[in-house]
Design goal:
alpha/beta; 25% helix; Spore Coat Polysaccharide Biosynthesis Protein SpsA, Chain A; two-stranded antiparallel sheet; three-stranded parallel β-sheet
C-alpha cells in the first residue's frame, strides 16, 4: 500500500443520493383551538415551527431533496418554505 485516498479528496462536491418524505397533512383536531389557523406541523416549538426543526435536521444529515405531503392548510406550509428558495434543500409539495 502506498497511499489512502478519501472520497472528499477525489470528488469536491458530492451530493448524497438521499431523499426524505415528510407527511404533514393531518387536521390536528386534538390540538384545537391551536390548529384553527395554523396546521399542526407549523405549530411553534420555541421560536420555530416544528416542521422547520425537522427540515433542519434532515438538511444537517445531508439530505437535499424533500417531498412534503400536505392536506390541511397547505398554503401556510408553502408560504413558509416556498420552493426551497431560502435553503439548500429542494422541496416538492
Amino acid at each position: 500500500m502506498v497511499d489512502i485516498a478519501l472520497l472528499q479528496e477525489l470528488v469536491k462536491s458530492y451530493e448524497l443520493p438521499l431523499k426524505a418524505v415528510i407527511m404533514a397533512g393531518g387536521f390536528g383536531k386534538r390540538l384545537l383551538p391551536l390548529t384553527e389557523e395554523v396546521p399542526k406541523p407549523m405549530l411553534p416549538v420555541g421560536d420555530k415551527p416544528i416542521l422547520e426543526l425537522i427540515v433542519n435536521q434532515l438538511q444537517n444529515s445531508g439530505i437535499r431533496k424533500v417531498q412534503m405531503t400536505t392536506h390541511y392548510k397547505p398554503e401556510v406550509i408553502k408560504q413558509h418554505f416556498g420552493a426551497g428558495k431560502n435553503s439548500a434543500l429542494k422541496f416538492n409539495m
